[in-house]
Design goal:
The chain is built from 4 helices and 2 strands. Helix 3 crosses helix 4.
Length: about 90
């Protein structure tokens, strides 16, 4: 994507990319936290919110990460991302 003719991606940090496009501050939930499961992700969301951050980029590598993110994000008003994020959401809304 670095040299894409319409939307080149020259900065590898999605936090910085989103921060440039946002009024609210952007934080990161790193994969090490995601690997600890839904409770750790939920706690990271709370810590970011407490620190005044409005948006979070969440690292995921495997389907189990997406499931944990879905569980942790079940009470959030808005979730957006690539199509893979939907893997963890259906089980949260019976």
């Amino acid at each position: 994507m670095r040299d894409h003719p319409l939307t080149p991606m020259r900065d590898p940090s999605l936090v910085r990319v989103l921060q440039r496009q946002s009024r609210g501050r952007v934080g990161l939930v790193p994969h090490a936290t995601v690997a600890e499961g839904a409770a750790a992700i939920h706690a990271a969301f709370a810590a970011l919110r407490h620190g005044g951050l409005r948006h979070a980029i969440v690292d995921a590598i495997a389907d189990t990460d997406l499931e944990a993110i879905g569980e942790a994000a079940a009470d959030l008003a808005l979730i957006t991302g690539g199509s893979g994020i939907a893997l963890g959401l259906p089980g949260q809304f019976p």
